[in-house]
Every structure is written in structure tokens, then in C-alpha cells.
């Protein structure tokens, strides 16, 4: 039984009915480069289930290890992927994975991206909404001490007060 070739196979053939003879070299070059560099960019997940189905952290570690062997680098999961997964869990209101990613990717939280009252408030509010009062307090305190007089100060003070009253 012959294996059905797919677009990821090196000898894939397909019909390009929308193309003319003169445009095929450009298309062939583009598809060839796309095939060769298939794991050069950071993976992007549409949802948490896709992350799980692909193998979670084991998948990511393998992905970045393979990428480092092909293109160089240290083989660790890059910040773009870490940021994307934290945002995905936050955006999909998935507190279980949000907490997991915030712990697993703690190193990325000290980068310039999260160095703002905006992010400290955002994290504090998310923890507060999910009744994780200690982490809410931590992020509100960080936001208020590092970024006094920010446009989020009132919101963070209110969140801090609520988190403290609920934690007791």
C-alpha cells in the first residue's frame, strides 16, 4: 500500500490551477523555503487543547531542541512562545493553565514586556477574579510600588483592598 504524500513530504506534488508557468518558480521557491524552515519560527497555538494535543511541554522542548540543532541556539523555549501561552490562557480564561504557565515560565515575567503597571494590574485582576488572593496581592503591590501615580493606580488599590479582605 502506497503512502499518501502530504504537503510536508519532500516530494509532494500538487495542482496549482491558479498559477501560470511564469509564476511557478516563485511559488516553488516560497514553498521550498517554507518547508525547510518549518520550525524556525515560534509555534503559535490557537487554543490550550491544541497545546495539550501536541504534547505540552514535552512537545515544546523537543521542538526547540530540534530547532537549535538545525539553526543554532540554546534549545530552550523562547520568550515569544512563553508570552503567547500565558496570554492564551489569560485570554481564554483558563486559570489552571494560566497558573501553570506563570509558574513554569516565571523567568519571562521579569522581562521588559511585563515591566509596567498595565501588566501588574492585569495579572492582579485575573488572580483576584479566580480567588488566588496571594498572587493578586503580590501583583498589585508590585504595580503600586514600582509604578506610582500610574493610570491603573486606583484600580490596583481597589483590587489590593479586596484581595486583602478576602484573604483573611
Describe this structure in words.
Helix content is 60%, strand content 0%. It has 8 helices and no strands. It has helices at residues 24-36, 48-54, 56-71, 79-91, 95-104, 117-129, 133-146, 153-167. Helix 4 (79-91) runs antiparallel to helix 5 (95-104), helix 6 (117-129) packs antiparallel against helix 7 (133-146) and helix 6 (117-129) packs parallel to helix 8 (153-167). The relative contact order is 0.07.
Kindly list the characteristics that best describe this protein:
single chain, 168 residues, mainly alpha, 3 domains
Write the topology of this structure.
Layout: H1 24-36, H2 48-54, H3 56-71, H4 79-91, H5 95-104, H6 117-129, H7 133-146, H8 153-167
Helix pairs in contact: 4-5, 6-7, 6-8, 7-8
Sheet-strand content, in percent, reads: under 5%
The gross shape turns out to be elongated
Question: Which structural category do the helix and sheet elements fall into?
Answer: mainly alpha
**Series of secondary-structure elements, N-terminal to C-terminal:** HHHHHHHH
Instruction: List how many beta strands DSSP finds.
Output: 0
Which assembly state applies to the chains in this document? single chain
Largest sheet: none
**What is the end-to-end distance?**
67 Å
Q: Which segments are poorly predicted (pLDDT under 50) over 5 or more consecutive residues?
A: none
The residue-averaged pLDDT reads: 91
For the CA atoms, what is the radius of gyration? Answer: 22 Å
Number of helices: 8
Total of domains: 3
Fraction of residues in helix: 55-70%
Amino acid at each position: 500500500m502506497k503512502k499518501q504524500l502530504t504537503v510536508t513530504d519532500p516530494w509532494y506534488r500538487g495542482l496549482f490551477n491558479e498559477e501560470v508557468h511564469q509564476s511557478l518558480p516563485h511559488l516553488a521557491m516560497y514553498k521550498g523555503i517554507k518547508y525547510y524552515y518549518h520550525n524556525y519560527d515560534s509555534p503559535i497555538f490557537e487554543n490550550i487543547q491544541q497545546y495539550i494535543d501536541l504534547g505540552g511541554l514535552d512537545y515544546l522542548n523537543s521542538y526547540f531542541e530540534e530547532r537549535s540543532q538545525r539553526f543554532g541556539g540554546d534549545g530552550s523555549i523562547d520568550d515569544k512562545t512563553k508570552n503567547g501561552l500565558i496570554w492564551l490562557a489569560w485570554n481564554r480564561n483558563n486559570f489552571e493553565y494560566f497558573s501553570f504557565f506563570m509558574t513554569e515560565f516565571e523567568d519571562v515575567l521579569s522581562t521588559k514586556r511585563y515591566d509596567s503597571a498595565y501588566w501588574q494590574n492585569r495579572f492582579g485582576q485575573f488572580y483576584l477574579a479566580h480567588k488566588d488572593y496571594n498572587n493578586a496581592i503580590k501583583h498589585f503591590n508590585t504595580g503600586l510600588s514600582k509604578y506610582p501615580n500610574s493610570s491603573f493606580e486606583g484600580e490596583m488599590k481597589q483590587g489590593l483592598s479586596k484581595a486583602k479582605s478576602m484573604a483573611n
